[in-house]
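Suppose a classmate hands you a notebook page containing two proteins, each written out with its sequence and a corresponding row of structure tokens. How would you begin to make sense of it? This section walks through that situation. The first entry is reproduced here exactly as it would appear on such a page.
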Amino acid sequence: MERGLKFNLVVSELSDRLRKLPYNHGDLSDIGNEVGYILGGIIKDMNDEDIQTFITGFKHGVSLTNGTHFTQP
């Protein structure tokens, strides 16, 4: 993925567009849809491996906050 990642642009767009969502009520799938739409619009050549890499990072971030993260002794 690094080949097409426009990191600062992605971060800026995510921040800006998620802050300005046109609706006040939704669920996690709505947030996921918006993130996917933003990423897909900026990084045109994402493939299944790229998507899995994103999902892996997402799961890791959640696991660090919900107590399911495995740490070695």
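The notebook's second entry, a different protein, reads as follows.
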Amino acid sequence: MRKNQVGKKLYYSISEVGEIAGLQPYTLRAWEKEFTCLRPCRARGKNRAYRGRDIGIVLLIKQLLYEEGYTTKGVKLKLKNEPE
């Protein structure tokens, strides 16, 4: 599954999002705790259900942290001040 396949489904599992973003599920779980804007809903009990918007946020956070060199605090400020 690749980035261009986002939007074909309504919900994605944490493993699918990890595959799309090139991240481990434990990273996504840690980011949920760190970034308040990343809150996937829960489906079937405790399973996370990511929507297209959530995947977009994950990809943006990854870009800001890994490619643009922002700190975690810097990413939080950027997301707060520039929500789009």
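A careful reader of the second entry would note: The mean pLDDT is 89.
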